[in-house]
Design a protein that fits this description.
mainly beta, 8 domains, ten-stranded mixed β-sheet, binds 2-acetamido-2-deoxy-beta-D-glucopyranose
């Protein structure tokens, strides 16, 4: 009875204990290594438990790993799983942070039925020895060629062969000395730096080696996980193929064992479209059937990790058309271009917008939009109106899906340059004439230039010039030049000029040339440089209410032929101008003619000779002294090189001085010098003079002479004096000698006179009597070749005046009439007084000019008794014109 009771109590106790301490003991733990994966693999069973026969229970295992070398439990981890009859044996794995070969690992575990039952007993430690290579016949280094992430810690170990030990190791050129007798050592490098493809070398030196050997070397590759791909997007040019592109970021590893791979797939990774390695950045695949929406994921991965990017696209909204091509012109005229281009066909019919860009050098770039359907034939065109005539336009086209589906413009097509057609030149030429009057014929050079309103509208091929007189006789000429010279008789003429391009001709410009007439005087003035600017010459005139405008003309190169004839027009209220020209040079003389326009009439008002600038200082000429008598001396000097200084030299000063004597020469200015010296100065107001004869000198006296050129500005006295001594008076014998000779001579003459005829006839054959014809009715000119072509010196001729140069104009409908006589009334008031004085100075009896006559016994009444000078211009009589038609202009 008692025995039964005990049994029952024990049973209940066991039942009670079993319910309260439900323990399942792990058994048969086996530990192994997968060295490739550096994994520790655990495998175990649990004791049979009746409760687990019927149902699943949650069970938690605590797993501990012990590393002998570190003498430490390096891991305690809970592993929870659902336990049933069929899932045994249980498995768990762990990746070691150090090479498994480097240490001995011990593993144990215990279990607990969840939740919060009692722990089972620990299993015993199961060791797995990495040292099983220890007794090998060679040494090792672990890990072998491992890839690790930048900055991580890496543990290495060196294992010597049987019965040897490790003496040394180097990591990345840094040698560590170890002093052990150990067969195996372990060392850890922290924060390893990023390496190149070569990696970092690690050497171990063993006791049996005298130095490091390549055999005991390994390489560590330090790299990074791939960057996350950026800018993943896709587009299609034809809706047949989708092209996805991305920025792969930086690639850190190129070694085959850790290549970066890109995989483009759908989001669920069920369909992979592309995979590529290294720096690949695009993937192209065919759009499947009707699918237009794609959710794509791009994975970039290497041996260390992976990153992803996503994109959702609608293919219709990703159409990037290829650039349009075959740009061509259908029709064009002067103001319009019809531009055609071609589009590549696309799978679906879309609304496409094309943008046409048109550009020319002088207009702003313009753009036009045009919408077309993307269904063949794809040859859209656009009419571009309002273009400029004869202009090069550069055109290009780009297209894109229109409206909501707009994604991106295509690239621009290649450009095409089209020149619009020519049209008739617009506006008129500004024409002007330069007349060289002759005796019977005038040489009229007609010049033209584009007026401000003139537009060539093409390539001007020729200028047409026609002329006709009242009798309708005349001619025409076609030229590419900007001027033409016609020889016309003295009748009035109508001259017409127009410009022609390949389209047509401009409206004509007309110049009416009136009959050549005498015209009286034109005011002529020579001026200095007053009013000029650094590069411009000041020209002024007296404006009169009579005129409605003014024209100034001149030659840019007055010395050359052609002289580069220029003219400028001025308004009614203008009375002066600064004429600038790059051609103007210092010291050169320029002649400006000022014309007034009166209604449509024009007339020459004034001629002015001006300089741009004077040259300073003027050099004095070298001089010669000749013809020395007892009372006179002739001084002559060289004239100046014309190119340099002629323009501003106004004349010469001749200085004469004697020691302690007063200046006795008449009409000379007397100058007082320091030391009681007195000099006479004679001023010659003609730059063309080359000679001066000094008279009334005293015999046997030494005079000092100097010649000085002067310009507009006054100068100090010359300093280079040269001495000359006049001849002595003759002695008494010489005084007596003339009577001794003259008395018999007189007797002979008287006899001869008495017998004059016979003597004369005997002595002299018949000689024509010198006859001086009057200068009247004869135009006498001197053409000064050394001066400018228009620098002609004209001696007064009463009937045909040089002033017939004057133009008079009457313009009717753009026609300009030249009529010289129109100015007369205007100029009479001013001219009357001047005419008189002009005549008296410019006209001199011919005899005076034939040659220098220093010995004349009758001084001319002008009072210049002791000074006769020879003018280069006025004196040599160059020609008497009779019917010839010389080309000349008045100064
Ligand atoms: C290690 O694991 C890899 C991958 O699972 C396997 O291919 C290899 O056979 C395993 N090696 C050993 C020795 O178990
Ligand atoms: C494992 O689980 C037990 C019970 O839940 C807990 O007390 C212990 O702290 C856990 N150990 C670790 C390492 O998480
Ligand atoms: C647990 O260990 C104790 C003491 O070593 C032992 O008495 C007991 O039987 C063990 N429990 C099991 C289930 O093996
Ligand atoms: C370690 O290597 C260096 C260089 O090879 C050598 O000079 C040195 O003696 C070695 N140290 C030991 C302890 O062997
Ligand atoms: C190396 O160890 C031996 C004994 O283990 C010792 O005698 C020797 O001094 C040590 N050498 C160095 C450089 O520490
Ligand atoms: C794609 O993704 C969008 C949101 O990101 C979702 O609404 C849509 O259903 C997805 N489509 C597919 C085909 O997975
Ligand atoms: C160019 O052609 C267009 C279209 O035919 C026309 O409207 C325009 O007037 C033409 N322009 C010229 C300058 O002929
Ligand atoms: C042409 O179309 C584009 C895109 O629709 C738009 O941005 C642009 O303003 C348009 N230009 C003109 C001149 O209409
Ligand atoms: C247009 O370009 C062509 C070729 O460069 C050139 O010969 C022509 O002179 C240009 N036309 C104009 C009006 O600039």
């Amino acid at each position: 009875m008692n025995h039964l009771v005990f049994q029952t109590v024990v049973l209940y106790a066991v039942l009670y204990f079993g319910q309260g301490n439900h323990v399942i003991q792990p058994r048969n733990l086996k530990v192994s290594m997968n060295l490739t994966l550096q994994q520790l693999l655990l495998e175990w069973y649990v004791s049979d438990d009746p409760k687990t026969n019927h149902c699943e229970i949650d069970i938690v295992f605590t797993i501990q790993i012990y590393r002998t070398e570190e003498n430490n439990i390096i891991l305690t981890e809970n592993y929870t799983t659902a336990l049933n009859k069929s899932n045994q044996p249980l498995n768990w794995s762990w990746i070691s942070d150090i090479p498994l070969q480097c240490a001995t690992h011990g593993v144990r575990l215990r279990s607990m039925v969840a939740p919060l039952e009692a722990w089972s007993n620990w299993t015993s430690w199961e060791a797995v020895d990495g040292l099983d290579v220890l007794n090998d016949s060679k040494g090792y280094i672990f890990p072998y060629e491992k890839y690790v992430e930048e900055g991580s810690s890496v543990t290495f170990c060196c294992i010597a062969k049987k019965n040897e030990h490790v003496t040394n190791y180097t990591f990345h050129k840094h040698t560590e000395i170890v002093n052990t007798t150990q067969q195996r050592i372990m060392f850890t490098e922290t924060a390893v730096p990023l390496t190149s493809e070569m990696g970092l070398s690690v050497y171990c030196r063993f006791s049996y080696q005298s130095s490091f050997s390549d055999l005991d070397r390994t390489v560590l590759f330090v790299t990074r996980q791939p960057d996350e791909p950026r800018l993943l997007d896709c587009e299609t040019k034809d809706m047949v193929e989708l092209k996805c592109t991305w920025d792969p970021g930086e690639i850190y590893s190129y070694n085959d064992n850790c290549l970066t791979e890109f995989i483009l797939s759908d989001v669920s990774h069920t369909k992979t479209y592309c995979s590529c390695t290294k720096q690949c950045r695009l993937c192209q695949f065919k759009i499947s059937g009707e699918q237009t929406k794609y959710n794509l994921t791009l994975v970039s991965k290497n041996c260390l990790g992976q990153k992803q990017a996503y994109v959702d696209i609608d293919v219709a909204n990703r159409v990037l058309l290829p650039p349009p091509d075959q740009l061509s012109v259908g029709y064009q005229n002067a103001t319009m271009i019809q531009l055609y281009w071609t589009l590549k066909p696309i799978m679906k019919t879309l609304l496409v917008v094309c943008q046409v860009n048109i550009f020319s050098l002088d207009e702003e770039e313009k753009q036009y939009n045009m919408t077309v359907l993307s269904s063949p034939p794809l040859h859209p065109h656009i009419n571009l109106h309002g273009l400029q005539v004869y202009t090069n336009y550069t055109l290009k086209v780009r297209c894109a899906a229109a409206n909501d589906l707009f994604w991106k413009w295509s690239k621009w097509s290649q450009t095409i340059t089209i020149q619009t057609n020519e049209s008739a030149p617009a506006g008129q030429l500004d024409i002007w004439g330069d007349i060289s009057p002759g005796f019977k014929e005038r040489n009229v050079t007609v010049f033209w230039k584009a007026s401000p309103g003139f537009q060539a509208n093409g390539n001007i091929k020729t200028y047409e010039i026609c002329w006709e007189n009242v009798e309708q006789s005349g001619g025409c000429h076609s030229t590419k030049s900007n001027n033409y010279t016609i020889s016309l008789n003295s009748q009035s003429y109508k001259i017409t000029v127009w410009a022609k391009n390949s389209a047509s001709a401009s409206p004509p410009s007309v110049l009416h040339l009136s009959a050549a007439e005498d015209n009286g005087d034109v005011k002529y003035s020579e001026e200095n440089t007053t009013g000029n600017t650094a590069h411009g010459i000041y020209v002024s005139w007296k404006p009169t209410s009579k005129f409605d405008g003014y024209v100034v003309d001149w030659c840019n190169y007055p010395r050359s032929q052609p002289c580069d004839f220029q003219w400028r027009r001025f308004g009614q209220n203008e009375s002066s101008t600064i004429i600038t020209s790059g051609a103007f040079s210092r010291g050169m003389r320029y002649t400006f003619r000022v014309y007034g326009t009166q209604g449509n009439r024009m007339c020459l008002l004034e001629k002015k000779t001006k300089y741009l600038k004077e040259l300073e200082p003027v050099q004095d000429p070298s001089f010669n002294i000749s013809a020395v008598t007892s009372s006179s001396v002739t001084v002559s000097w060289e004239s100046y090189p014309e190119d340099s200084q002629l323009g501003f030299i106004r004349g010469y000063n001749v200085y004469i001085k004697m020691a302690n004597r007063n200046c006795t020469l008449k009409l000379s200015e007397t100058l007082l010098f320091p030391g009681d010296l007195v000099a006479c100065k004679h001023t010659i107001k003609d730059r063309n003079e080359k000679k001066l004869t000094l008279r009334n000198l005293e015999p046997g006296i030494t005079y000092l002479l100097a010649v000085q050129a002067y310009s507009v500005n006054p100068r100090n006295m010359a300093d280079k004096f040269e001495p000359v001594t006049t001849q002595l008076e003759r002695n008494w014998f010489h005084r007596l000698l003339p009577p001794l000779i003259t008395v018999p001579l007189m007797i002979i003459i008287c006899v001869c006179f008495w017998k004059s005829d016979c003597v004369r006839n005997y002595l002299f054959p018949e000689v024509p009597h010198p006859h001086v014809s009057p200068v009247k009715k004869t135009l006498v000119v001197i053409e000064d070749h050394e001066v400018t072509p228009d620098r002609l010196v004209v001696m007064k001729k009463p009937d045909i005046s040089i002033d017939s140069l004057l133009f008079e104009g009457r313009a009717i409908e753009n026609a300009t009439y030249f009529n010289p006589s129109c100015c007369q009334s205007l100029q009479d008031q001013e001219g009357a007084s001047r005419k008189l004085s002009c005549a008296s100075t410019s006209y001199r009896p011919l005899q005076d000019f034939v040659k220098s006559r220093p010995t004349t016994s009758c001084p001319p009444e002008t009072g210049q008794s002791n000074l006769n000078y020879v003018s280069q211009i006025k004196v040599p009589l160059l020609g008497v014109l009779q019917g010839a038609s010389p080309s000349f202009r008045e100064p």
